[in-house]
Structure formats: structure tokens, C-alpha cells
């Protein structure tokens, strides 16, 4: 009864793997889920009582349920049937695609990750790299926004730091759901962002079925009151200017909106500006003539060089944070009031007429965003230097012209951020940032001028406030043809 049984090594390994998986599935995974669920519930109670943040039931619904609700939505099923007929494929194949799109889009919001890990990461990184400030805030108007509204933060897009910066500053008021692009669909970043409520968007997709699935998710989240954050420009500003609005996500939100419904949609304009954008030179490669993008090896080498130079500055005690990162929150716009003023119901409108109305809305939103973009020290100094690129300035001349420009901007209604309410200090900070980066140099006579070959980089920062100067205006809306998917 005690015979030895010989088992091939591969079979033994397979059996041990099955036993280990069974133990993990039955014992460890449920324990981990219970642990995280308990922590998430504690965080939910804390944010409800401490910050009066109301997390919407939609955000707390199990992800599998949301996916099923989206997949079997009547409009999505109709779109899948039409797609299958058009492509000559079985309905089941089209529905499988819908399932894949839904799993890609739908987030898995976790309050513990958002308010513990996410808030800690965003706050720590933002304050490590920048002096973070709120430039201007329409406190009374923001306080008057009804609590049951669907709030949409409309943000200009300067840097990938925008996500962390705005999330950190808004964390005491709400939990934002971002629309993020394909750049974030890498492991483990994708899982982390989904746990923080982000949903993924294929910005260049022309697939009609994918667009309908995305549209219905956005409409479901908006109707459920989920606070969202969108970047109407559709991507990072390449030349530093406030870009034109693309209408895709705005169209999704507006086309199903009922002006007489119980829940309003309120757009909050948010404007971001930096003394230094970490991606500036990379972004300029798309607009500077004769520039060539480095390959993967070159990009990694540039990153290593940048990190190494910063670590060397830290080690030698010469490192400074990258200046100021400033965020302003403008006056909200109620979509319900906007529609009632125009006796408008967007739901029955045909495509052409609806897009014309949404263009009008986008123009007003981008105007509100542009009006509150903070004038930070580097942008102010860069604007003076960029006027006459070949000129050499004495410190006195630069100060006088910067001071004149400051008054010109303030007279035009711009919000100028002066650190410590001290103009001389603001000028010192702005000039120091440009000198440390070798964008501005001092010659033997003590005169300041742009470094050779750096005109485009300095203009990038001046362009961030170009629309605030007299006679300049940003393009408010992208060409309609480019926004119709």
C-alpha cells in the first residue's frame, strides 16, 4: 500500500501551480478584497463628514455592472446591429467588440486609491516640483453651484502635470473623473488611473461603433452626476498658445441634455500656467521647422541626461524647484441657464444645427478659460524679451518694460500672479528661471539677451499669455470637420 509513484517533473510543477492558484483564489484574494473594501468604506465616511464630498452612486457601482449596463444599452445595441450589417459580420462579433470597448473605457473607481494614494502622489509630486498656488477663484459663484449638478471642469492643457495639479487642488471639493488618452494605457499606470476614476479615450479613432460606446458612457456618467474634467484642446499645446476647442466630448454631454430636467450640467473653467513646462522642448519639436524627433534610444538618453543633471544640482545644493504652478478657477457656466436663455433644447436638433450651437458654447467656455489664465513670472519676463529677440536689456530696462506690461495686462482684466505681492521678487524669480535654463544669458557688459537658438522656447512661455495682450485672441473652436467623428 506504500508504493512509490513516479510523477514527471512537469506534472508536479503543474499540480503545485494549481494548488497555489486555488489557495490564492479561495483564501488570499477574498481577504485582500475585504481589506481594501473596508479601507475604502472608511475613506468614504471621512470625505463625507470632513469635506462634505458626495460620491455619486454611479462611481460606487461595481465595474462589471457598469460594463454590462453600457454593453446592453439600447442605443449601443442598435449601433452594434447597424455596424454588423454594414461590415457584413455576425451580430455576436460586433457585440464582442462592444464588450472590449466597454472594458477599455469604464473605470474602476476606488475611494481609497483616490483619496489616499492618488491625493498623496499628486500633492507630493506637485509640491516637490513647483510652488503650487491658486491664482484666482470665483468663490461666491462656485459656492452657488447646486450640489446635485453634474460638474465638468474645463481645463486648458499645458502639461501632463495638469492631471495631478488640478486633482490635488480640487480634492477637498470633489473626486474628478478624467478623460485620458492612449499615452496612459501602459501597465501599471492604466490600472492605477482606472482605480482613480479615469476613463480612456482613443482620440484619433474614427470607428463609429467605438464612438457610440464612448458617447453613451459619457452621457451615463454625466446624467448620474459624476464630476468630470476635460481638456477641450484635445492635447497638449505645442506652441504654448491657448488652442482651439474640439467638440467631441462637449457634443456627447450636450446632445442628451434636458434643459427642463432635474439635474443641471455646470461647466467650471480652469486655467493652468507654469514657470516651466517639463515637456516644453519635446512639444516644440512639432512646430519648430527642421526639427527631428529622437528615437526611443535618444528619448531615453535625453531623459537620463535631464534626471542626472537635476540630481547633480540637488547634490551640489544648487537645485531650485521649477518656479510657480498656478491654477485659476473661473466663473461657472450653467448649461441649463445657457439653453433657456436661447430657448434651446439640443436633443431634437439635427447634427449640423447642433454643432453650430455647440461651437457657440465652446467659444464661450474657451473665452472664460482664457480670461483667467494666470500671468506667472516667467511668462511676464518672456513676453518682454520676445518682443525684440535681438535686443540687449539692462536690468533697469527689463524691469521698466516688465512693469509697464504688467499694468497693461491688469488694465485688460488679466489676473497677474505676483509672488509675495512683490513685483521685484516676481521679476527676479522669472529671470532666474530663464537664466538657470540658459535661455537668457548675460554678456560681458552685464546686458541680458536671449541665448542663441532659444527664441522658440522663450516664445513658448510668452505665448501662454499672448491672448491677454491687446489685439491678440486665441482660436476658440477647432474646424468643425476635424471634430466630427
Helices and strands, with pairings:
Elements: H1 9-50, H2 57-60, H3 63-71, H4 74-87, H5 91-105, H6 111-129, E1 131-137, H7 139-143, E2 150-155, H8 161-170, E3 177-180, H9 189-195, E4 199-200, H10 208-223, E5 228-230, H11 248-255, E6 265-274, H12 280-284, H13 296-315, E7 324-329, E8 333-334, H14 335-341, H15 351-371, H16 377-387, H17 395-411, H18 423-436, E9 440-442, E10 448-450, H19 455-463, H20 480-483
Parallel strand pairs: 1-7, 2-5, 2-6, 3-4, 3-5
Antiparallel strand pairs: 6-7, 6-8, 9-10
Helix pairs in contact: 1-6, 3-5, 4-5, 4-10, 5-10, 6-8, 11-15, 16-17, 16-18, 16-19
Which key phrases capture this entry?
single chain; 485 residues; alpha/beta; Glycerol-3-phosphate (1)-acyltransferase; Arc Repressor Mutant, subunit A; 2 domains; 8-stranded mixed beta sheet; 20 helices; 10 strands; 9% strand; globular; disordered C terminus
Describe the structure in your own words.
By secondary structure, the protein is α/β, with parallel strands linked by helices. The protein has two domains: 108-310 and 320-373, Glycerol-3-phosphate (1)-acyltransferase (3-Layer(aba) Sandwich), CATH 3.40.1130; 377-463, Orthogonal Bundle (Arc Repressor Mutant, subunit A). It is built from 20 helices and ten strands. The chain has helices at 9-50, 57-60, 63-71, 74-87, 91-105, 111-129, 139-143, 161-170, 189-195, 208-223, 248-255, 280-284, 296-315, 335-341, 351-371, 377-387, 395-411, 423-436, 455-463, 480-483, and strands spanning 131-137, 150-155, 177-180, 199-200, 228-230, 265-274, 324-329, 333-334, 440-442, 448-450. Strands 1, 2, 3, 4, 5, 6, 7 and 8 form an eight-stranded mixed β-sheet that branches. Strands 9-10 form a two-stranded antiparallel ribbon. It is globular and about 90 Å long. The protein starts with 8 loop residues before the first helix and ends with a helix.
Amino acid at each position: 500500500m506504500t508504493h512509490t509513484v513516479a510523477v514527471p517533473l512537469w506534472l508536479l510543477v503543474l499540480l503545485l501551480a494549481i494548488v497555489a492558484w486555488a489557495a490564492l483564489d479561495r483564501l488570499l484574494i477574498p481577504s485582500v478584497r475585504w481589506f481594501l473594501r473596508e479601507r475604502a468604506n472608511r475613506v468614504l465616511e471621512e470625505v463625507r463628514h470632513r469635506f462634505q464630498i458626495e460620491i455619486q452612486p454611479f462611481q460606487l457601482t461595481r465595474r462589471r455592472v457598469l460594463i454590462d449596463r453600457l454593453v446592453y444599452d439600447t442605443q449601443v445595441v442598435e449601433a452594434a446591429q447597424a455596424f454588423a450589417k454594414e461590415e457584413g459580420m455576425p451580430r455576436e462579433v460586433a457585440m464582442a467588440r462592444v464588450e472590449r470597448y466597454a472594458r477599455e473605457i469604464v473605470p474602476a473607481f476606488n475611494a481609497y486609491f483616490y483619496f489616499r494614494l492618488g491625493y498623496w502622489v499628486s500633492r507630493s509630486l506637485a509640491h516637490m516640483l513647483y510652488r503650487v498656488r491658486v491664482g484666482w477663484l470665483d468663490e461666491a459663484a462656485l459656492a452657488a453651484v447646486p450640489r446635485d449638478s453634474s460638474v465638468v471642469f474645463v481645463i486648458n492643457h499645458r502639461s501632463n502635470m495638469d492631471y495631478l495639479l488640478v486633482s490635488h487642488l480640487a480634492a477637498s471639493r470633489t473626486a474628478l473623473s478624467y478623460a485620458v488618452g492612449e499615452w496612459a494605457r501602459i501597465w501599471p499606470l492604466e490600472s492605477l488611473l482606472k482605480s482613480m476614476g479615469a476613463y480612456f479615450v482613443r482620440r484619433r479613432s474614427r470607428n463609429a461603433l467605438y464612438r457610440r460606446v464612448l458617447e453613451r458612457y459619457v452621457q451615463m456618467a454625466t446624467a448620474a452626476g459624476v464630476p468630470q474634467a476635460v481638456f477641450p484642446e484635445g492635447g497638449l499645446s505645442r506652441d504654448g498658445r491657448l488652442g482651439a476647442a474640439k467638440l467631441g466630448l462637449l457634443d456627447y454631454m450636450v446632445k442628451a441634455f434636458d434643459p427642463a430636467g432635474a439635474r443641471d450640467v455646470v461647466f467650471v473653467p480652469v486655467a493652468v500656467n507654469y514657470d516651466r513646462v517639463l515637456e516644453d522642448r519635446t512639444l516644440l519639436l512639432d512646430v519648430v521647422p527642421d526639427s527631428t524627433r529622437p528615437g526611443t534610444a535618444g528619448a531615453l538618453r535625453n531623459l537620463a541626461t535631464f534626471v542626472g543633471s537635476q540630481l547633480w544640482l540637488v547634490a551640489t545644493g544648487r537645485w531650485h524647484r521649477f518656479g510657480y504652478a498656478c491654477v485659476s478657477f473661473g466663473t461657472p457656466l450653467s448649461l441649463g441657464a445657457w439653453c433657456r436663455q436661447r430657448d434651446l433644447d439640443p436633443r431634437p436638433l439635427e447634427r449640423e444645427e447642433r454643432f453650430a450651437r455647440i461651437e457657440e458654447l465652446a467659444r464661450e467656455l474657451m473665452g472664460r478659460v482664457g480670461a483667467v489664465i494666470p500671468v506667472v513670472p516667467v511668462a511676464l519676463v518672456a513676453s518682454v524679451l520676445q518682443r525684440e529677440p535681438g535686443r540687449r536689456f539692462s536690468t533697469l530696462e527689463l524691469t521698466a518694460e516688465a512693469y509697464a506690461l504688467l499694468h497693461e495686462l491688469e488694465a485688460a482684466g488679466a489676473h497677474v500672479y505676483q509672488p509675495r505681492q512683490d513685483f521685484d521678487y516676481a521679476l527676479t524669480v522669472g529671470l532666474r528661471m530663464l537664466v538657470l535654463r540658459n535661455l537668457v544669458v548675460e554678456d560681458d557688459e552685464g546686458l541680458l539677451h536671449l541665448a542663441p537658438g532659444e527664441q522658440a522656447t522663450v516664445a513658448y512661455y510668452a505665448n501662454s499669455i499672448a491672448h491677454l495682450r491687446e489685439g491678440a485672441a486665441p482660436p476658440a473652436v477647432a474646424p468643425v470637420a476635424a471634430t466630427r467623428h
